[in-house]
Amino acid sequence: MKQVLKRYWDILRRPATHLSLGFLVIGAFVAGIIFWGGFNTAMEATNTEAFCTSCHEMKDNVFQELQTTIHYSNRSGVRAICSDCHVPHNWTDKIARKMQASKEVWGKLFGTIDTREKFEAHRLQLAQNEWRRLKANNSLECRNCHQFESMDFTKQSKRASEAHSTYLGNGEKTCIDCHKGIAHQLPDMSNVK
Fold first, then answer.
1. Count of H helices and E strands in the chain?
2. Is 81 helix (H, G, I), strand (E, B) or coil?
3. What is the CA radius of gyration of the chain?
4. pLDDT(158) > 70
5. 19: helix, coil or strand?
6. In the predicted model, is pLDDT for residue 35 greater than 90?
7. Which pTM does this prediction carry?
8. Closest to 141 measured CA to CA, from 90, 101, 178, 106
């Protein structure tokens, strides 16, 4: 056993041209930790409200609308920020969403939505993309805060209580089916069938 350990130790400390294999392995491990830490720090930095509202397209359009809703200001003091609703919490889904969001950055760089008029012209398409995403994941971002099992139907209006217990209970509908426009103004849907 001692000979085997000595043999491996000799391999790790023997120079591989200029550096020992052990130094390369440890160096790669440390570099991996630094890369992973930097990557996660950057990911979290792009999930902040300050980052999301740093461009005037979001600050002057959808963020202004959010500030008038219960998701921004309410009696409990709990506030939803952009990433709570628009970025999945699960890591793999978050990465996929960040890759999709890169297309939105492309739109900013090339002026697709850089004015209120251009934003309004694309608003329906942008909203439909979000609604489709939320429908596909069963409104997971809504359910991160609003859990069906925790709902007190006695404190809801009769209409809400019936809808929640009927549609959410059996999985027939998901939150976004009924709550479009809950945090932002609805786009012009006069031409939507």
1. 11, 2
2. coil
3. 25
4. yes
5. strand
6. yes
7. 0.73
8. 90
